[in-house]
Every structure is written in C-alpha cells, then in structure tokens.
Amino acid sequence: MNPKIAPSILAADFACLGDEVEAVLAGGADLIHFDVMDNHFVPNLTVGPTVLAALRKRFPDVPFDVHLMVDPVERLVDEFIEVGASMISIHPEACRDLGDVLKRIKNTGVKAGVVLNPETSEAVLETCWNDLDHVLIMSVKPGFGGQSFMPEVLPKLSRVCDAIKQDGRDIHIEIDGGISSSTIGVAAKAGAEIFVAGSAIFNTDDYANAITELREHAA
To answer: Interhelix angle for 74-82 vs 49-58, to 10°?
Structure first.
C-alpha cells in the first residue's frame, strides 16, 4: 500500500495560504485538499474558484482535490474545472442528476468522486460505479474542521472497499474527518488509500514530521 496524504487547507493559515501550501508540499504531501462550503449545504463558508485559480497559477503541477459541499453543485463544477481542479468530489444529496454531473466531470479529464456522509448509504453508488474514479468517505459530519473521528463509518468503508475489489474496479477510497496518527491506521486497515488531514498537520510545528508520521501509521 502506498498511502497518499492530502492536507486540507481548511486548517491552514489563510493569511499566508500560498506559503502554507508550499510548506506541506515540501513536507511530502501528495495532493492538496480544497474544501468548498456555501453556508447552505453545510453551515460554514469557505473559499471559491478564484482562490483555487490563484493557487493553480503558483503551483501548476500540484494535484488539487476539490470537495464541493454546495447545493446546487452543477454550476460550480464547471467553474472549478476551468480553474484547474484535478479531482472533484460531489455529494449525491446536492445533485439533481448524480450520473450526469459525474459524466460532465470525467469528460473533461478531471477525476470524479462521490462523497458519502456518515449517514449516507453506499447504495447510492450502485447506479454510478462506471463514472467513478474515487469515493470519499466522511468520518465526521461535513462543515467544520477539528472534529473527532467517527469509527462507526468503518464498516461502510470496508463494504465499499470489498465491492470495488470484487468487481476489479480502478476506484480509490479517500477518507476525511478526524484523521490523525491515532486514527489513520484503522482507516487504512478498512481500505482507505487517500487520507485528508487538517489539524493533524497544520496545527503542528513541523509539517514534514507530521506527514511522515501519518504515512508511517497508515502503512
């Protein structure tokens, strides 16, 4: 297993966001997780396409993993594709036609994913397996960083992993919420491959050490 660490800029210092991104990349981050919240679908407001456009200009080759917590999602999908998203994850609850949105993403060459909230059944994946590049399992309720990991999502993570393996699909599993050195191991054991971590990285004095420690516990 080659675990990938995706620092979430939600926990970064926004006064020097570009430098924060540069620091975690220098510390070994594999991709940058970009949380987009609209104060409607979730009770928080974060960043939009113009911020990603600025980061993409500074970091032209970095994979940006965009998690859209917005409703409706359709218009912003196109805007984030235009400014350089590498991956886009969407919530089925925010889509008028989930399959259509996933196809729109994939047709541009951007990787498409579905987000499963803690209360969302994996059954929603049954109609869209062929349009997926990844599944994002939320191990907290979306909206705010710094929450505690919810171990009750692990059985669902395992079931999604088993379904992917059973059919030999090239789909990756990402997990987001409360990921730290004490929780990343159980998430990896259940089948996660990409680990979103915010506070566990940005609330430390040594980003490289934090990322290395996370990777070692996952492996």
So the answer is: 20
Dig out the tokens for 49 from the structure: 């396409």
Distance CA 35, CA 45 (A): 10
Whether domain 4-218 has CATH 3.20.20.70: the reply is yes
Give the model's pLDDT for residue 80. 97
Dist. CA 146–CA 124, nearest whole Å: 27
- Helix, strand, coil tally for the chain in percent (to 5): 45, 20, 35
How many angstroms from the chain centroid is the CA of residue 192? 12
Positions annotated as catalytic residues are: 35, 176
Q: What is the pLDDT of residues 105-154, one digit of tens each?
A: 999 999 999 999 999 999 999 999 999 999 999 999 987 777 899 999 99
Residue 63's CB: how many other CB atoms inside 10 A?
16
